[in-house]
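Hello, quick one for you while I still have it in my head. I'm working through a protein record and want to make sense of it properly. Would you mind checking whether the tokens look sensible for this chain? I owe you a coffee for this, so here goes:
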Amino acid sequence: MTTLNDQVRAFWEAGACGTDAELARPFEKGSREWFEAIEENRYRLEPFIHGFVQFTRHRGKKILEVGVGAGTDHLQWARAGCECFGVDLTKEAIDTTAARLRLYGFHSTLQRVDAEHLPFPDESFDLVYSWGVIHHSERPEAIVAEIHRVLRPGGLFLGMLYNRRALVTLELWVRHALLVGRPWRSFRDVLWHHLESIGTKAYTGAEIARLFERFTAVESTPILTPYDTRRLPRPIAAMMPDTVGFFRTVRATK
């Protein structure tokens, strides 16, 4: 029987997240130029990652990244002097990240596993990081429970999940519900079927609070992204508040 996570894995095996950037296509896959084009594209579109995560402030910590993708952020953790571990649902992401770290002279312990069942003892990590990954899982609550389990007391989770009440969601709803005569479709249903891999989810602030309720402190903040405003005239885009942004950062302390 094919599970939702089997379908998600098949989707992302076709290409690690972020590697479809137009800027990377002229270069040989796995070359320094290819990786640097992917990195430039990521931080040009999502510059707020550095401000939120502050990689270098965590030097010397033992960190786990859940969902390494193309290894762009994982390389920043290694450059910051962290003891790095990473997991991903796909072999493609693990192989891509391992190649990237070797190219730059760094090392990480990487494993292809389903993060709903992390292969680490309790209280193993100082910090767990996951940017735009958990919402693709069949059971996001299981991943969050595993993150809580493997964090040491006082340990920190830093990450991002999609925000449901966002301009990206509205655009998808207009395209796949309103304009095709199905206005009764919910935002949740449209995201599930029409954003990236099947089963993609997005959350309100209250839902994030419930998802991370076992943590002692949780901060969740929406961020307006270029994906929200790409079709808007610049003056209108400039007036849009972060509350309708598609990314919702999460900072949670165990």
